[in-house]
Amino acid sequence: QKEVEQNSGPLSVPEGAIASLNCTYSDRVSQSFFWYRQYSGKSPELIMSIYSNGDKEDGRFTAQLNKASQYVSLLIRDSQPSDSATYLCAVKLAGAGSYQLTFGKGTKLSVIP
Amino acid sequence: AAGVIQSPRHLIKEKRETATLKCYPIPRHDTVYWYQQGPGQDPQFLISFYEKMQSDKGSIPDRFSAQQFSDYHSELNMSSLELGDSALYFCASSSGGLTSRDTQYFGPGTRLTVL
C-alpha cells in the first residue's frame, strides 16, 4: 500500500463548480501536509500547506485536515479552466532527520468551460 | 521573487555516459532536495542537503552522487546512465532548517533523456 493515496481521476467539473480532491496517508504521526499543482511537463507549484486539524482557506482554495481519519482534502471553489492540472498531495512522514516529501500519484483535474 | 534555478533544462545522453545536473536554491535557502519524476509517476525523493551536509537519502542509485557547495548550490552527478534514468529531475529548496513545517519550493526541472 502506498503511503499517500489519491484518486488518480480524471476528475471533471464544470467551470464555476467546486472541485474536491482527496488524499489519505498511512503514517499516523505525519505532521505536515501540502498540496501542489503540476501542469504537464512542469514543476510542482505549492498551493497550500496545512499542519493542524480543521480548515485553512486561501482565496479560492480550502485545505482540510483530519488527523484522526488520516485524511486531507483540497477544495477549489469557482473552478476555472486554468485550474486544469494534476494535483499532488504531499506528506512529510515522521522520522528523525527525515524531511522529504512523499507524494501521492496525483489527481488529474479537468475543468470544462 | 527569485526562484530555484536548474541547469540545464534539457539534456540528452547516450547509455553509459555521465551527466551533471545543477541546482541554485532560492537566496538564503539552506536546504536542497532532489526528486526524480518518471513519465506518469509522482516525484520520488533522491537525496537532500542541509548546510552542505547530506541530511537524508532516498531511492538514489549508487551510480548517482550529489553534493552541496559553500554557496549552497547543489550538483547531482549521474554515471553509467541507463534508459530508465530518463525522467524529469527536480530540485527543491527550503529555508526551514530541517523542520517539519519547512516548505519546499521546486525548480523548473531538468528533463534527461537517455538514448
What features would you describe in this structure?
The complex is a heterodimer of chains A (113) and B (115). Helix content of chain A is 0%, strand content 54%. Chain A contains no helices and eleven strands. Chain A is globular. Chain B is mainly β. Chain B is built from no helices and eleven strands. Chain B has strands at 5-7, 10-13, 19-24, 31-37, 44-50, 53-57, 64-68, 74-78, 87-94, 105-106, 110-114. In chain B, the strands form two sheets. In chain B, strands 2, 4, 5, 6, 9, 10 and 11 form a seven-stranded mixed sheet that branches. In chain B, strand 4 (31-37) and strand 5 (44-50) form a beta hairpin. Classes of the chains: A mainly beta (113), B mainly beta (115). The interface between A and B is medium-sized, with 25 and 29 residues.
A few lines on this structure:
With 113 residues, chain A is mostly beta strands.
Number of helices of chain B: 0
The mean pLDDT of chain B is: 93
Distance between the termini of chain B: 36 Å
The major beta sheet of chain A can be summarized as: 6 strands, mixed
Strand content of chain B: over 45%
SS elements, strand count of chain A:
11
Topology, pairings included?
The complex is a heterodimer of chains A (113) and B (115).
Chain A: E1 4-6, E2 11-14, E3 19-25, E4 32-38, E5 45-50, E6 54-58, E7 61-66, E8 71-76, E9 85-92, E10 101-103, E11 107-112
Chain B: E1 5-7, E2 10-13, E3 19-24, E4 31-37, E5 44-50, E6 53-57, E7 64-68, E8 74-78, E9 87-94, E10 105-106, E11 110-114
Parallel strand pairs in B: 2-11
Antiparallel strand pairs in B: 1-3, 3-8, 4-5, 4-9, 5-6, 7-8, 9-10, 9-11
